[in-house]
Structure formats: C-alpha cells, structure tokens
Design goal:
By secondary structure, the protein is of the alpha+beta class. About 30% of the residues lie in helices and about 45% in strands. The longest helix has about 35 residues. About 20% of the residues are buried.
Length: about 250
C-alpha cells in the first residue's frame, strides 16, 4: 500500500509538472503569435516603402526577361535583356542589350511590360502601386514569424483597395526586423486582357544598399487564345546612388 501511495504521489507530481510545462508552452506560443501588433507592423511597412523612395536618387539594374509556353520552363520562346535606369525625378528608361524570338511575342510580352513599368514609375503615378496601406487593406496572418528566403518574416494578407492590373490580391512577406519587403505572391486584381484570366504573380526581393530590391519575378497567365504563358524576370548588377543626407 505504501508503495502504491508513493507511486500515486509520484504520478501526481509528474502530472502537475507536465501540466505546468504545457501551460508555459501555450503561454510562450501565445506570446510569440501576439508579440507583433498589426497596426504598428503596417505603419512600419509604410515607413520602409517610403524610406526606399526617399533614400534612392537613382539606380541601374540588368533585367533578363524570358517567355515560356505551356509547362516548358527550360526553352524560352523569346528572351530580352535590358539595362534599366531609374531616376527619382523622372522614372524609368530602358536600353535593350539583346533580344531573341518572334517579333509578335516580343512586342506583346516585352513591349507591354516595359511600357507599363514606365507608366507606373512616372512621378505622380508610382505611389499608386506601392505596397502600402494607402493602396491595400493589410491583415497580419496568425502564427508569428516564419522563415522565407533565409530571413525571419511576417506574413500579411493584402487586398487592393481598388481594381488595377498592377495591384495584387494575395500575401506579402516582410522582414520581421526592418519591415522591408521579402516576397509578394498572389493574383492581379484585374486582368490586362478580356481574353485571359488575371495572372498569378510572384516577386522576390533582397536587401541592396539597405533597401528592398527585386531579384526575381514571375507572372503566369492563361487564355483560350494562347494557353498558358509564363514570363520571368531576373534582376542583377544593381548600381544604386543614394540621396545626399539633408
């Protein structure tokens, strides 16, 4: 009987210890999930986006475009490499370094892409495409931080406040330390054509000279005229000129 009582006491102590451990773990997990309040996070994202605009006077980057048809992402139908020049006071301009493929594909795919990038980066237009709370409703996703592209990130669901081909309905990941953009993924809120569904879009970013700059992008569209088309963009060799301190 004494042995049985001892065993019961040991079991009771073990259960109390286990229960206490579980309570602590739940509390820690709850704290991890709640340590980032939504409103300050969104304010920090807005500030990081504006800091990039305010901090960069100009930059150049090499952009390599490729168009693939169907599920073949090995042999591009068309390719183009351009040198992009961005100036804060005037927007973007392009110098084509090389291109290959059918003229109609290059005109439809590359021509429209470059024209659109020029338009949305003109002074007075560019703020309308920024990933900020002025353009998006943002909701912090539960679960705390997650690892993405080797960085500790926060994920937010984003919903455009208006329909536009350059606004995405999906998810944005930001660095949990400085709130710079790490990746975006979703569906365009408006199709650029009556003959196709809104494209699925993704873009990855890296920290360059202290600011988020694109490194890879992909758009996947489907239409009954052309089937599945994939356009990728790879960015390299950034040369950034920062604004002088004021």
């Amino acid at each position: 009987m004494i042995a049985l009582l001892m065993s019961l006491k040991q079991l009771s102590a073990a259960l109390r210890t286990a229960t206490a451990f579980i309570v602590v773990c739940v509390a820690i997990g709850s704290l991890t999930a709640q340590q980032f309040d939504e409103s300050p996070v969104i304010q920090h994202i807005d500030a990081a986006v504006k800091a990039r605009f305010d901090g960069i006077e100009s930059f150049t980057v090499i952009e390599r475009y490729a168009v693939f048809r169907g599920n073949n992402q090995t042999d591009p139908v068309a390719e183009m490499t351009v040198k992009t020049l961005y100036r804060r006071d005037s927007g973007k301009s392009y110098t084509i370094l090389s291109e290959s493929g059918p003229e109609i594909v290059k005109k439809i795919a590359f021509g429209q892409l470059l024209d659109n990038e020029k338009r949305i980066n003109q002074p007075g237009n560019r703020e309308a495409s920024w990933f900020t709370s002025a353009n998006y409703e943002m909701k912090l996703k539960p679960g705390g931080t997650e690892q993405l592209n080797g960085r500790n990130c926060l994920a937010l669901a984003i919903t455009p406040r208006r329909k536009a081909t350059n606004l995405i309905d999906g998810t944005i990941w930001v660095d949990a330390r400085d709130y710079s953009i790490v990746q975006i993924q979703g569906v365009s809120s408006r199709s650029p054509s009556l003959f196709s569904a809104p494209p699925q879009m993704m873009r990855k970013y890296a920290n360059v000279s202290g600011f988020a700059e694109a490194t890879h992008a992909q758009a996947v569209s489907n239409s009954f005229l052309f089937g599945k088309t994939i356009v990728t963009i790879d960015y390299s060799n950034y040369q950034i000129r920062l604004r002088a301190a004021r």
